[in-house]
Write a structure and sequence with these properties.
Layout: E1 6-9, E2 21-22, E3 29-33, E4 39-43, E5 46-48, E6 54-58, E7 65-68, E8 71-73, E9 80-83, E10 89-91, E11 94-96, E12 112-115, E13 121-123, E14 126-128, E15 136-139, E16 157-158, E17 161-163, E18 166-168, E19 174-180, E20 187-193, E21 196-198, E22 204-205, E23 208-209, E24 212-218, E25 224-231, E26 234-236, E27 243-247, E28 253-260, E29 263-265, E30 279-285, E31 295-297, E32 300-302, E33 305-316, E34 322-324, E35 327-339, E36 346-351, E37 356-360, E38 377-382, E39 388-393, E40 398-402, E41 419-424, E42 440-445, E43 450-454, E44 471-476, E45 482-487, E46 492-496, E47 513-518, E48 524-529, E49 534-538, E50 555-560
Parallel strand pairs: 1-4, 3-6, 4-7, 5-8, 6-9, 7-10, 8-11, 9-12, 10-13, 11-14, 12-15, 13-17, 14-18, 15-19, 16-20, 17-20, 18-21, 19-24, 20-25, 21-26, 24-27, 25-28, 26-29, 27-30, 28-31, 28-32, 29-33, 30-33, 32-34, 33-35
Antiparallel strand pairs: 2-3, 22-23, 36-37, 36-50, 38-39, 39-40, 41-42, 42-43, 44-45, 45-46, 47-48, 48-49
Length: about 575
């Protein structure tokens, strides 16, 4: 065929399984590989990719391909997969029922996946019922090829658009993802506009939940995402927050992301990827110590309509974020725009009457003060994002405030000894049962007995053992796989993966110890005395106390401003 001629591919695929061809060097196979000649159009046909990994593969250097009016179904992985090309158009097509037998080692196994692609458009498509990892994805390429098990060549994705698509009913992954995986490649100049993205509330199958959501993220160390515009999309019913902007790994940079004019409603029913309660928009950098702290800078959030969430906007570790002109309706007790305090910069105390005292950056979210109690409050624990806390009473009753949810209690149940403290599970892994996700807590009794609720696991106790002084409180390790108990004489007992950093055991105290709190990294803790005195161990710093000050009721416990949830 002469150079510059048009190769119009219109012959329908057979009704049965396709003949599978190598998909370049990706390690995958494809039912169709776009031809490497002139200006190419693949139009108006059905691709049955049964038995192949990909329906249509657009190989490196195959620029200016147009895929329009096609239906792609039955692939093991992607319906349409393009690598290191420019000028690609995917329009008015239906990508459905793919991801039937996912290949291991693929990070972004979407219905439509573009890696290292520039000046390309994905517009007017219906992407639904795909089983592997969600709907539409744009990523960079390189040592990690996010769309294939084999590495690719370094290539950024730049100046691409994802517009006016429907991404609905896709399992196991997000509706639309813009993600960077390769240092030196990256993502820039992407527009995500006018799409309808939805999950299905409460829907789980062997393929996972119907997730939905729009995600912009730097996912591997040293990667970058710049200038991404997420505009005028409608996002509903997602398992994750409606729109998520993440800077995830060491030395990542996400900057210049704008979220404008989107409608976000009834998302985050899985309460994952941020706070322990549902959020509409999440903008978060992972808490990783300097000098490799990921950056998330210059996000603009304006003109969005958010409803049906506890948090309208939830932010952590971001800088120079501009929030204006949004219409946000939260659930009862919710917050329109919540900024997670810097970790390790304050703590909270509870009094026996349920009163709450806050220090440093710790916030006040309500208390039991002035309410008739069956038994006095004996301890408290904060949620991972410091947007709420639990109070525990001596009879095992538990009271929830802010974004803290109730997971059960010992209230009304027989106890060998009264409850003296509470500790919450941390937020470690989102959306899996492998580790706790700040959806549970432990209660500890005076005899050292431990009771677990929600996603809290049992790692041992002092129940039935001889004690020099009664146990008065506890604190959990950052990964939730251990905890400390503290006794009235300042003795400290470690369980699971908790390490010992010292105690007040055997030392003179003005008043007995009544509780403890751990530092964000788990390498230290504070002990808190009845008069409000505070003692620091390991890497715990001192920020002040109620020691020597007049109190209406004695201090009974405390909780540190702790770890920002992993993003």
């Amino acid at each position: 065929m002469p150079a510059g001629a048009v190769a119009m591919v219109t012959t329908p695929s057979p009704a049965g399984a396709a003949t599978c061809l190598p998909a370049g060097t990706t390690g995958l196979t494809a039912a169709m590989v776009a031809p490497l000649i002139g200006t190419k159009t693949i139009a108006n046909q059905t691709i049955n990719a049964t038995g192949c990994d990909v329906g249509i593969f657009v190989p490196p250097g195959d620029n200016n391909v147009a895929i329009t009016g096609v239906t792609v179904t039955g692939a093991n992985d992607h319906g349409i997969f393009a690598q290191n090309v420019s000028g690609l158009t995917i329009s008015d097509s239906t990508v459905t029922g793919n991801g039937v037998a996912p290949t291991k080692g693929i990070n972004e196994n979407k219905g439509i996946e573009l890696v290292g692609v520039s000046s390309s458009d994905v517009t007017g498509n219906i992407v639904t019922g795909n089983l592997a990892d969600g709907g539409i994805g744009i990523a960079d390429d390189g040592t990690v090829d996010p769309g294939a098990p084999n590495p690719g060549l370094p290539a950024a994705s730049t100046n691409d658009t994802i517009t006016n698509n429907k991404s609905e009913g896709n399992y196991g992954g997000c509706g639309i993802v813009v993600a960077a995986y390769d240092p030196g490649a990256g993502i820039s100049g992407i527009t995500v506009q006018g799409n309808v993205v939805s999950g299905t509330v409460g829907r789980f199958t062997a393929h996972g939940p119907v997730i939905g959501g729009i995600v912009v993220a730097a996912d591997m160390p040293g990667t970058s995402v710049t200038t991404v515009h997420v505009t005028s999309n409608t996002v509903t019913g997602s398992f994750i927050p409606g729109i998520v902007v993440h800077s995830n790994a060491p030395n990542d940079t996400v900057s210049g992301v704008s979220l404008n004019g989107n409608t976000v409603s009834g998302n985050d029913w899985g309460a994952v990827d941020g706070p322990p309660t549902p959020a509409g928009i999440v903008v978060a950098a992972s808490q990783i110590p300097a000098p490799v702290t990921p950056k998330l800078d210059g996000t603009a959030i304006g003109g969005n309509t958010v409803s049906g969430e506890f948090y309208g906007i939830w932010r952590a570790g971001d800088t120079n974020t501009a929030v204006s002109g949004n219409t946000i309706t939260t659930e009862p007790g919710g917050v329109a725009d919540y900024q997670v305090p810097a970790p390790g910069t304050g703590y909270t105390m509870a009094a026996a009457d349920g009163g709450v005292f806050t220090f440093g950056s710790a916030g006040f979210h309500g208390s039991m003060a002035g309410t008739k109690l069956n038994a006095p409050v004996v301890g408290m624990a904060t949620t991972a994002d410091q947007g709420g806390y639990w109070q525990a009473a001596a009879d095992g009753g538990v009271f929830s405030f802010g974004d803290a949810s109730f997971y059960g209690s010992m209230g009304g149940k027989p106890l060998n000894a009264p409850v003296v403290g509470i500790a919450a599970t941390p937020y470690v892994v989102q959306g899996t049962g492998a580790s706790p996700a700040n959806k549970g807590y432990w209660l500890v009794a005076k005899d050292g007995g431990v009771f677990s609720f929600g996603d809290a696991s049992f790692y041992g106790s002092m129940g039935g053992k001889k004690l020099n002084a009664p146990v008065v409180g506890m604190a959990a390790t950052p990964d939730g796989h251990g905890y400390w108990l503290v006794a009235a004489d300042g003795g400290v007992f470690s369980f699971g993966d908790a390490s010992f950093y010292g105690s007040m055991g055997g030392k003179k105290l003005n008043q007995p110890i009544v509780g403890m709190a751990a530092t964000p990294d788990g390498h230290g803790y504070w002990l808190i005395a009845k008069d409000g005195g505070v003692f620091s161990f390991g890497d715990a710093s001192f920020y002040g106390s109620m020691g020597g000050k007049k109190l209406n009721a004695p201090v009974v416990g405390g909780s540190a401003v702790g770890m920002t949830p992993a993003a």
